[in-house]
Q: What sequence folds into this?
């Protein structure tokens, strides 16, 4: 038995060496795989941080545009963030994150940095609901900026609005800009609304059929400005 010890020991050592030799690549592969998983997780975190940073930069730029309007906007109340949207065909509204505690009241005008968005219809201490100008129950007194023709922009429940009460014999054309006239005692004058995108004449109707493309899609707006109409007088904008 003593003399058999060395061959057995030699055999065990040989088997151990073979197993170790075969095992090392698998161990290395497992380590590499775990490292790849860790690196992918870190990469995802970095990409997420980058996207978050980009969004913060864009948000700051949008807020800066609104704040730049603050000093030149009569009746400015506050700036708010959109926290909810209802894009249904029956009721087009959005919810913002400020209410009466921030000076907001019913029927105040709401605009983005580019154009009119709508008006406040419901308000509590911390939130307000805004009826968008695209809603079928919405109407805004406007002027054609070039020739001062007056009409009313009404919502259709879709992205396009219509311009009403322009007589058939008046001259309007595609591309004409529309601004609020202020004559509805609700919206301050001079706020951009949109452009005329289509004009159709008819021998049997009193008024032109005019479609309006808004200068900003309300449901793509994330920050808005609230304006108190009582703080601005009607002017000849």
A:
């Amino acid at each position: 038995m003593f003399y058999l010890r060395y061959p057995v020991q030699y055999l065990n050592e040989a088997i151990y060496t073979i197993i170790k030799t075969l095992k090392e690549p698998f161990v290395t592969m497992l380590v590499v795989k775990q490292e790849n998983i860790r690196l992918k997780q870190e990469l995802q975190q970095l990409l997420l941080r980058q996207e978050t940073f980009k969004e913060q930069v864009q948000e700051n730029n949008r807020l800066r545009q609104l704040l730049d309007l603050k000093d030149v906007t009569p009746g400015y109340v506050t700036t708010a963030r959109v926290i909810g949207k209802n894009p249904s065909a029956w009721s087009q509204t959005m919810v913002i994150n400020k209410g009466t505690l921030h000076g907001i009241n019913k029927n105040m005008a709401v605009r983005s940095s580019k154009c009119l968005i709508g008006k406040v219809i419901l308000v509590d201490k911390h939130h307000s609901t805004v009826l968008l100008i695209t809603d079928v129950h919405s109407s805004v007194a406007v002027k054609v900026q070039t020739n001062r023709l007056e009409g009313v922009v009404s919502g259709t429940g879709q992205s396009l609005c219509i311009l009403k009460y322009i007589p058939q014999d008046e001259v309007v054309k595609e591309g004409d800009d529309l601004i609020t006239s202020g004559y509805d005692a609700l919206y301050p004058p001079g706020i951009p609304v949109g452009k005329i995108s289509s004009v159709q004449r008819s021998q049997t109707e009193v008024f032109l059929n005019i479609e309006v493309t808004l200068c900003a899609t309300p449901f793509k707006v994330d920050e808005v400005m609230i304006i108190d109409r009582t703080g601005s007088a009607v002017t000849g904008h």
Summary: Residues 232-237 have pLDDT under 50 and may be disordered. The first helix runs from residue 5 to 70.
